[in-house]
Amino acid sequence: MHSVAANGAEIPALGLGTWTLTGKGCTDLVREALSVGYRHIDTARAYDNEEAVGAGLRASGTPREKIFVTTKIWYTDLAPADAVQSAEGSLKRLGLDYVDLLLIHWPNAKIPLAGTMEALNRLRERGLTRYIGVANFPTATLAEAIKLSDAPLVANQVEYHPYLDQTKLMAACRKAGIAFVSYCPLYRDGGLLREPAVMDAASRHRRTPGQVILRWHVQHQGVVAIPRTSRIERLAENAALFDFELSQAEMASITALAERNSRICDYGFSPKWD
Ligand SMILES: NC(=O)c1ccc[n+]([C@@H]2O[C@H](COP(=O)([O-])OP(=O)(O)OC[C@H]3O[C@@H](n4cnc5c(N)ncnc54)[C@H](OP(=O)(O)O)[C@@H]3O)[C@@H](O)[C@H]2O)c1
Fold first, then answer.
1. Is 47 a catalytic residue?
2. Of 146, 180, 184, whose CA–CA distance to 262 is shortest?
3. Residue 265, ligand 1, Cβ within 6 A
4. Which tens digit of pLDDT belongs to each residue from 187-208?
5. 3-state secondary structure the chain
6. Which of 47, 75, 160, 163 is catalytic?
7. Under a CB-based contact definition with an 8 Å cutoff, are residues 154 and 9 in contact?
8. From the CA of 44, how far away is ligand 1's center (Å)?
9. Domain at 11-190+220-232: CATH code
10. Are 153 and 178 in contact (CB under 8 A)?
11. Per residue in 224-274, pLDDT tens?
């Protein structure tokens, strides 16, 4: 599995997203993903599936140290004691002694970031997570988090797909050595896969549109993609990204779709985006 180097961490460039997957279906997908070569699983306390994810990790028989597991602390739990409780609860539900990456799920301007960063650093020192990072942090808040942390941050997980220009934030992540982890990488199949630029590249490379988009992600320096599927038969399809390459012209024509400027995950509690 290809990986992205980020401030000491080696993050597998492809992970399985698990939002909306629950119960036995989630367990089966996680187990199967690991058996077809995935080495990175993305969950969160808020997804209400950590027990099912943990069961899948165990059922796969894959040695723990070969898997990169990410979980997150919800934005209402960022006061230090709540953050610690959230992380400890996640480990208990996952049935793990440590996660590889612990993220702040969303920034929360109402809770001082200094205390949360301090709590993340202590959790790391206790060995409950190997690395720490953030999600949905725009450039200004990211810079603040970097400044407030003793340990380097290794990831900013944010929405990214060809309908959204993230040039500014990606540059800030690269400069800080932080992996840029694309969520909603397929735009939840909301039409992106039927764009002519995508379909043309797919037929030229004899690949599926989903593979073309995921390849577009991982072909950017420092970018990790975490697509979700609820279909076991799609797991191998979404992982077969490292034996072909899009041309510069193909990359550019897919990147040009950013003109649409469309964001899926935007809520009342979202920060002011770049
Ligand atoms: N940090 C955050 O705030 C945040 C926010 C959103 C998401 N995330 C993370 O990012 C992950 C991915 O994002 P997402 O789940 O929102 O969206 P996504 O991965 O862009 O899209 C998932 C959708 O695409 C379909 N799909 C998957 N592979 C496909 C393929 N090869 N061809 C056609 N359709 C395909 C799936 O349908 P089928 O199930 O039918 O395959 C599903 O409906 C999440 O699961 C979660 O782990 C994080």
1. yes
2. 184
3. yes
4. 998 999 999 999 999 999 999 9
5. CCEEEECCEEEECECEECCCCCHHHHHHHHHHHHHCCCCEEECCHHHCCHHHHHHHHHHHCCCHHHCEEEEEECHHHCCHHHHHHHHHHHHHHHCCCCEEEEEECCCCCCCCHHHHHHHHHHHHHCCCEEEEEEECCCHHHHHHHHHHCCCCEEEEEEECCCCCCCHHHHHHHHHCCCEEEEECCCHHHCCHHHCHHHHHHHHHHCCCHHHHHHHHHHCCCCEEECCCCCCHHHHHHHHCCCCCCCCHHHHHHHHHHHHHCCCCCCCCCCCCCC
6. 47
7. yes
8. 14
9. 3.20.20.100
10. yes
11. 999 999 999 999 999 999 999 999 999 999 999 999 999 999 999 999 999
Query: What type of residue sits at position 20?
Result: T
Q: Give the total residue count for the chain.
A: 274
Dig out the tokens for 243 from the structure. 């034996």
